[in-house]
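Appendix B, example 12.
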Amino acid sequence: MSFEQALKDGELDTARAILDELVDLPDTEGLWLPECYGDLAQSYDRRGRHDDAIVAQERAIALGWGGRPDPRSDIAEFHLRAGRAEQAAAVWAELKAKDPDDVWLYNAAGLSYSEVGEHELAVAWLGEGLELAMRTEEPEGIAAQLSDVRRRRLQALGRELDELEHRGGEFLPHWRARARKRDPRFDLDEALRDAVPPGDAPLPPGHRDGEEIPFALAWFPAGEYERAIERWPDLAEDWAEVPHDEYCRRMDGHIKWMRSNGVPVRAVAPILVDEYTAWCEERGEEPEDARAGYAADRFAGGAAIAWPPGRNAPCWCGSRRKYKKCCGAAAARPMHDTGA
């Protein structure tokens, strides 16, 4: 049995034994062991085997597993979900002392405390992250998310928006304007032309007059993505050389970028090529121009995928990995900005 099959089948101890055998061999069968141990840690955590998750994560780190926030932040999360709040707090305090300017650390700790109902601690960590994002002119595009989650935690505590949230509300519009001025290559208006449904598109279920109208972005699942590239030249021009997992990460970063610019993207609408083609024929639409309308229609019909998922929920892209370890790690940037 391969590591991938054992992990897929939930044979976690078998998967760990396979990795433990490979780690001392020159040939790892094409596996990058740090990531494999990291995936194993997340699988143990989902099973509630938090101590095994910690051991696997420590092995991943020892073999070179990195990223932002520091992967030891996951160890803090495992302690927290195991009911060991003091150990979790100690790990996060150590990481904060080591790198006080890692905004993703404040985000991770704040969201983790939020998930277990520790709203006061969530408000504190998210507040420090929001302060940092504003002080550093928001290079990661995360201030909107920090503020959004923090506001909901304040509401859960029965508290009004505080001075920090008022400053955040003033900061975001000015930041968006400066960001567009700094990088004129990426035009929000152009992105909206691809994302906003036509004026006569049906509204999503449950919508009431006066409420925000959320948007959904069209997305090709694996298999459909490759078929679409073969069929439509405009897609092939942009995506023929981009593997599907990278396409999904760019989609996630694009959604974050749009939301940081005030566009309430709330869902991803899968495009199934055959259904989409029939939909376009029925309406006399050109498939290369109608994806936004189709996304709106799918969203209104309840066929879209809510975004974002929880950090520890399966990623929306269908990879079966946790969101935070899959597309959730993508930075906020426009779709065709590769970060180079």
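Confidence is low (pLDDT under 50) at residues 184-212. The two ends are 39 Å apart (CA to CA).
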